[in-house]
Write a structure and sequence with these properties.
Length: 609
C-alpha cells in the first residue's frame, strides 16, 4: 500500500504524454520538409534518397544498441537530455551549408509579389514573347502558370534522365548564350522583373524542353562544364565564391558532390545523436509503469505522439507560408523549420527532466528482441505480416521523401503541404474508433491486405496530381492505409507473442517497416525518381503493392490456422483449481479437528463419571 501511495500514475502518464507530444511536434515540424530543403539546396533525387536511406539504416542499428548501453550504465536520463541538446545543435549546422549555386534561393523564391503586382498584368504575354521570341510562342507556358500560388517556392519539375532540376543564374548567362547556339533544341533565358521600389528584384527562369534530345544536351553540357570546372576554380576570386572555401579539401569534386557529401556527414551525425532518444525514453517509462503494475496503460501514450506530429507539421506549414521568401536579409524562410524544431526540443527538456523512469535490471531487452524474432519466424502468418510491413515501409518512404516534391511541382506551398500531412495523421488516428466494426466484417489478415491496398490507391492518386489542393482526398485514405496496417500488426503481435513479449514483437515489426523498409525504399526510390520521374515512381510503387496484395490473400488462404491461446484464461483456470484444492484441504482439516475435539470431550466425560 505504501508503494502505491508514492506512485502517481496519472501524473506519470501526463508527463509522458507531454514529452511525447513535444518530441513528436518537434520532429514533425522539420523532418517531413527536410527533403524539400535538400531540393532547394540543389541535390538530385538520387542524392536525397541516399541521404535519407543512410539516416534510416543508422537508426535501425544504433537505436537498440544505445538503449541497451544506457540501461547497462544506468544513464538513461543523461542520454535523453544529451540527445535533445545535441540533435538541435547538429540540425542547425545544416543551415550553415550554402546551396550548390549562390542564386538558388532567389531562383526558388516565391513569386507572390510578381503575381499580385499590376506590372505583370501590363507586361503579360508581351514580356514573354519579347524574351523567348515568336518561334517559341506555340510551346510556351503562360506567365500565370510559371507564378506559384501565394507563399510557395517556385516549383521545379523533376524530369526523367536528368541529374537535377535546371536552375538558371546570371552567373552563367554569358556562357549559355554560346551554348544555345550549338543546341537549338533547348532555349533557356532569364527574365528579370522589377516591380517597384518597395518590392525586391525577382529573378526567375523560363525553361522549355521540346524534345527528348534536349535532356541529352543538358547532360552533355554538364559533363563538359564539370571537366573544365577544376581549371577555372583557381581563377574565381569574387566575394560570392568565398562561401565555398570550407570545401577546399574536396576540390577534386564539383560543387554538387561537395554539397552532397557534406550533407551526408551532417545528417549521419544528426541521426547518431537523435536515435537514442525514442527507445531510451520508451524503455524507461514502460519499466516504470510495469514496476507500478500499470503496464496496461502504456498504450494510451501513442495517441499524444500522433497528435503532436499533426500539430507540428500543420503549424510549421502555416507559419512558414505566411513569411516572405527571404527573412532577415539573406535567410531563406525554410530555415524557420529548423528554428521551430530547436524551440520545441528546448520545451521538451523540462519534461525530460521530470519524466518518470525506472531501471529493471532483471529485464533483458536483448534476449527479448531475439525471442521476438524467433516467434515471428516460427509463425507463417506472422511472417506474412512481417513481409507486408517491410513492403509498406518501402512504399511509405517514397511518399515521405518525394510527395512534397510532387506537390511543389503542381503549385503547392508550405500551407498545402503542412495541412495535407496533418490531415493524414489525424485520419490515421481515427481508425481505432472504427476497428470494432471492421473486425466484425474482416479478419486481421484481411484488414492487413485492405491497408496495403489503400496505400496502393494513395500512391496511384499521387501520380496524377493536378492542383495544389488535389492531394487532400488521398490523405483521408490514411485511415485505412497506415491506420489499418498498424491495427492489424498489433493484433498479430498479440496472437503470436507469449506473455511479456508483446512489446518486443511489436518493436521488431515496427523496425522492419520504419527503418529497414524505409531505408531500402529511400535508396531505390531516389534512383527511380531520377531515372523515370516522380509520377512513374508513385505508379511503380502502386503496381508493386497491388501485386503483393493479391499474393498476400492467396498465401493467407494457404497458411495453416493456429489457434490462439488465451493465457489469461489459463491463469484464471489454474487459480480456480488451486483455490478449490485449498478449500478442500481446509475442509478436511477442519472436519478432522472437530472430530478429534468431540472424541476428546467424550473421553473426558467418561473419566469424570
Amino acid at each position: 500500500m505504501k508503494r502505491n501511495k508514492q506512485i502517481d500514475i496519472k501524473r506519470a502518464l501526463a508527463l509522458a504524454g507531454t514529452f511525447n507530444f513535444l518530441c513528436s511536434c518537434a520532429d514533425a515540424s522539420l523532418l517531413p520538409f527536410l527533403t524539400l530543403y535538400f531540393r532547394q539546396l540543389g541535390l538530385t533525387p538520387a542524392m536525397t534518397g541516399i541521404i535519407m536511406g543512410t539516416k534510416h539504416l543508422i537508426s535501425l542499428v544504433w537505436s537498440p544498441v544505445s538503449s541497451l548501453l544506457s540501461k547497462h550504465y544506468n544513464k538513461r536520463r543523461v542520454v535523453i537530455n544529451v540527445s535533445l541538446v545535441c540533435s538541435v545543435v547538429v540540425a542547425l549546422v545544416l543551415l550553415l551549408i550554402p546551396p550548390a549555386d549562390v542564386h538558388t534561393w532567389s531562383s526558388t523564391c516565391n513569386m507572390t509579389n510578381v503575381s499580385s503586382s499590376p506590372v505583370q498584368s501590363v507586361l503579360g504575354d508581351d514580356l514573354l514573347m519579347s524574351t523567348v521570341g515568336p518561334e517559341a510562342s506555340s510551346t510556351t507556358t503562360h506567365p500565370k502558370d510559371l507564378v506559384s500560388q501565394p507563399g510557395v517556392t517556385l516549383p521545379t519539375k523533376t524530369l526523367a534522365d536528368t541529374k537535377s532540376a535546371p536552375v538558371t543564374t546570371s552567373k552563367t548567362s554569358l556562357s549559355q548564350h554560346d551554348e544555345d547556339k550549338s543546341h537549338p533544341q533547348l532555349k533557356q533565358e532569364n527574365v528579370d522583373v522589377v516591380v517597384n521600389d518597395s518590392q525586391p528584384l525577382v529573378s526567375t527562369s523560363v525553361v522549355y524542353h521540346t524534345t527528348s534530345s534536349s535532356a541529352t544536351a543538358v547532360r552533355n553540357r554538364r559533363s563538359n562544364s564539370k571537366s573544365g570546372s577544376e581549371d577555372l576554380q583557381g581563377e574565381k576570386t569574387t566575394e560570392e565564391d568565398s562561401r565555398f572555401d570550407f570545401l577546399g579539401s574536396l576540390k577534386v569534386m564539383d560543387t554538387e558532390h561537395q554539397l552532397f557529401f557534406m550533407i551526408l556527414i551532417i545528417v549521419s551525425a544528426w541521426e547518431l545523436v537523435s536515435a537514442p532518444l525514442e527507445w531510451t525514453a520508451d524503455d524507461g517509462f514502460y519499466e516504470y509503469l510495469d514496476f507500478a503494475d500499470s503496464s496496461d496503460r502504456y498504450s494510451s501514450t501513442w495517441l499524444w505522439g500522433l497528435l503532436g506530429a499533426a500539430c507540428g507539421v500543420g503549424g510549421a506549414g502555416v507559419l512558414v507560408s505566411q513569411l516572405s521568401c527571404l527573412i532577415a536579409g539573406q535567410t531563406a524562410r525554410s530555415a524557420v523549420h529548423f528554428y521551430c524544431y530547436a524551440g520545441l526540443a528546448a520545451l521538451a527538456l523540462p519534461a525530460a527532466a521530470y519524466l518518470p523512469l525506472y531501471l529493471n535490471k532483471k529485464r533483458d531487452r536483448a534476449n527479448g528482441l531475439l525471442k521476438a524474432v524467433q516467434l515471428v519466424r516460427g509463425s507463417p502468418r506472422a511472417l506474412l505480416c512481417a513481409v507486408t510491413t517491410l513492403l509498406v515501409g518501402v512504399s511509405g518512404s517514397a511518399v515521405d521523401n518525394f510527395l512534397l516534391w510532387q506537390m511543389q511541382d503542381h503549385g503547392s506551398d508550405e500551407l498545402h503541404m503542412g495541412l495535407s500531412l496533418a490531415l493524414a495523421l489525424l485520419s490515421q488516428a481515427t481508425f481505432p474508433l472504427l476497428a470494432g466494426r471492421v473486425s466484425k466484417l474482416l479478419s486481421p489478415g484481411r484488414v492487413l491486405a485492405l491497408g496495403a491496398a489503400s496505400l496502393c490507391l494513395q500512391c496511384l492518386y499521387y501520380s496524377f496530381l493536378w492542383a495544389p489542393w488535389a492531394v487532400l482526398p488521398a490523405q483521408v485514405l490514411s485511415c485505412f492505409s497506415s491506420g489499418a496496417v498498424w491495427w492489424a500488426v498489433n493484433v498479430q503481435c498479440e496472437d503470436v507473442a507469449t506473455p511479456g513479449t508483446e512489446r518486443s514483437v511489436r518493436r521488431v515489426l515496427n523496425a522492419l517497416s520504419a527503418h529497414l523498409g524505409s531505408g531500402l525504399g529511400s535508396f531505390a526510390g531516389g534512383f527511380a525518381a531520377q531515372r523515370f520521374g516522380l509520377a512513374w515512381l508513385f505508379r511503380g510503387v502502386a503496381a508493386g503493392l497491388m501485386v503483393w496484395c493479391v499474393c498476400l490473400l492467396l498465401l493467407q488462404w494457404k497458411a495453416p490456422h493456429q489457434r490462439r491461446i488465451n493465457y489469461s484464461r489459463l491463469l484464471a483456470a489454474d487459480a480456480s483449481e488451486a483455490s478449490d484444492s485449498e478449500s478442500e484441504q481446509e475442509r478436511d482439516w477442519l472436519d478432522k479437528a472437530m472430530e478429534d475435539n468431540r472424541s476428546n470431550n467424550n473421553y473426558g466425560r467418561r473419566i469424570n463419571q
